[in-house]
TrEMBL record:
It is an enzyme of class 1 (oxidoreductase). Keywords: Disulfide bond, FAD, Flavoprotein, NAD, NADP, Nucleotide-binding, Oxidoreductase, Redox-active center. GO terms for molecular function: flavin adenine dinucleotide binding; glutathione-disulfide reductase (NADPH) activity; NADP binding. It comes from Trema orientale (Charcoal tree). Catalyzes the reduction of glutathione disulfide (GSSG) to reduced glutathione (GSH). The keyword Methyltransferase does not apply. Its cofactor is FAD. PANTHER family: GLUTATHIONE REDUCTASE. Binds 1 FAD per subunit. It catalyses: 2 glutathione + NADP(+) = glutathione disulfide + NADPH + H(+). Homodimer. This is Glutathione reductase.
């Protein structure tokens, strides 16, 4: 069966001269983006090979696993721990709902850890079967480029295999980084945090991003003492400032000790535990110090520069809007390109790649109105523009609608924790530019709001939608009064 393949930017029928390639496509990295691209390419008739490092929950340059960061040491195991931590607050809230809960409630960390590991092993197996069922040839080992159309795979026993491919896709993701401070070897990253043998009763977290906030919520929810240190006035830089303040307030309300405008200068191993020294001279003693200070693209051992693939200043693979590198036969998707580092985005990029190169459907990833969530307790979820971004980009005035209320569940439990919702609207066109929510079930609600924004919904259409009562979600269609009107030329001043 003849296949259509993208050659020099145009779709052409394959010819007999291309038969000398071992594969139409060889993918390095079997995470979300790589698996999606390989399966979809195979469904279009391509002969596909893929390689991935051997499985281990904690990654390194020589171990990883099919499923990648999200499945093995990212979104999935983290969400399992979030569920586990959430029960702490649920048990407290249950008392006022008539549940006679003993004062002493024990938490078994090792049991949860075992269940988490069982689940990621199950998913690892499912991903392997997905590849096999799609007809993709899986190689376990480390892959690297040796030419524009050649890949070398080093197997577990050291044997090296070489394969040629019409197209090569790099999908090796990223890896957690440690700060360059004395004693950084005494801290851990998110990899180790998901696989600790003993539950840490005292934790110091360095970082203000979503990983830092999520682990602070997880450990606090399980009963640990948590100190969260971050460089700005509020955590979650890049998110809507008003919603960042809500998250910070909720963290404090649940017992997390916040240290804004604080960095760590040194970590020391002592008999009392791990001592973290801040740039204010404060000494924090912990069982664990977590560095949640960013991730870096996995490009170090791919031999990219020798082949001529261009990298940016972060050593991410530079690609065009079709995910193609400067070498026409080499492509890249996912976190290794450092565009928008979210699992569903890697899936989108992998899908577009397969459609473009093998499906006869030239497709470009669309990065507008991508919803996302921070799985703090309670979670924050957003889609579209923050208020600050809307003001920055606006040609005219911006209307801001907000709602802050005590969720119905809290009125009985007695928990003092408000849910906050927000809509940012273009005053001239009435189009909803952004939506945010911090409160119970925010990600589940925001997924539906994301569809509305993708369709270009207006505030009038939100207002004409009948709400589901009683629910928190109905607030998004009942916010009638403008909280504030902001001129587009009025740039917000913030040092948060």
């Amino acid at each position: 069966m003849a296949r259509k393949i993208l050659i020099d930017g145009e779709l052409s029928q394959t010819n007999e001269e291309e038969a000398h390639y071992d594969f139409d496509l060889f993918v390095i990295g079997a995470g979300s983006g790589g698996v999606r691209a390989s399966r979809f390419s195979a469904s279009y008739g391509a002969k596909v090979g893929i390689c991935e490092l051997p499985f281990h929950p904690i990654s390194s340059e020589t171990i990883g696993g099919v499923g990648g960061t999200c499945v093995i040491r990212g979104c999935v195991p983290k969400k399992i721990l979030v569920y586990g931590a959430s029960f702490g607050g649920e048990i407290e809230d249950a008392r006022n709902y008539g549940w006679e809960v003993n004062e002493r409630v024990d938490f078994n960390w090792k049991k949860l850890l075992h269940k988490k590991t069982e689940e990621i092993l199950r998913l690892n197996g499912i991903y392997k079967r997905l590849l096999t069922n799609a007809g993709v040839k899986l190689f376990e080992g480390e892959g690297k480029l040796v030419g524009p159309n050649e890949v070398e795979v080093t197997q577990l026993d050291g044997t090296k295999l070489s394969y040629s491919a019409k197209h090569i896709l790099i999908a090796t993701g990223s890896r957690a980084q440690r700060p360059d401070i004395p004693g950084q070897e005494f801290g851990i990253t998110s990899d180790e945090a998901l696989s600790l043998e003993e539950f840490p009763k005292r934790v110091v977290v360095l970082g203000g991003g979503y990983i830092a906030v999520e682990f602070a919520s997880i450990w606090r929810g399980m009963g640990a003492t948590v100190d969260l240190c971050f460089r700005k006035e509020l955590p979650l830089r890049g998110f809507d400032d008003e919603m960042r303040a809500v998250v910070a307030r909720n963290l404090e309300g649940r017992g997390v000790n916040l240290h804004p405008r604080t960095n760590l200068t040194e970590v020391i191993k002592t008999e009392e535990g791990v001592k973290a020294i801040t740039d204010h001279g404060e000494e924090l003693i912990a069982d664990v110090v977590l560095f949640a200070t960013g991730r870096a693209p996995n490009t170090k051992r791919l031999n990219l520069e020798a082949v001529g693939v261009e990298l940016d200043s972060t050593r991410a693979v530079k690609v065009d809007e079709n995910s193609r590198t400067n070498i026409p036969s080499i492509w890249a998707v996912g976190d290794v390109t450092n565009r928008l580092n979210l699992t569903p985005v890697a899936l989108m990029e992998g899908t577009c790649f397969a459609k473009t190169v093998f499906g006869g459907q030239p497709s470009k990833p669309d990065y507008r109105d991508i919803p996302c969530a921070v799985f703090s307790i309670p979670p924050l979820s957003v889609v579209g523009l923050s208020e600050e971004q809307a003001i920055e980009q606006a040609n005219g005035d911006i209307l801001v609608f907000t709602s802050s209320f005590n969720p119905m569940k809290n009125t009985i439990s007695g928990r003092q924790e408000k849910a906050v919702m927000k809509l940012v609207v273009d005053a001239e066109t009435d189009r909803v530019l952004g939506a945010s929510m911090c409160g119970p079930d925010a990600p589940e609600i925001m997924q539906g709001i994301g569809v509305a924004l993708k369709c270009g919904a207006t505030k009038a259409q939100f207002d004409s939608t009948v709400g589901i009562h009683p629910s928190a979600a109905e607030e998004f269609v009942t916010m009638r009064s403008v909280t504030r009107r902001v001129a587009g030329s009025k740039k917000p001043k913030t040092s948060l």
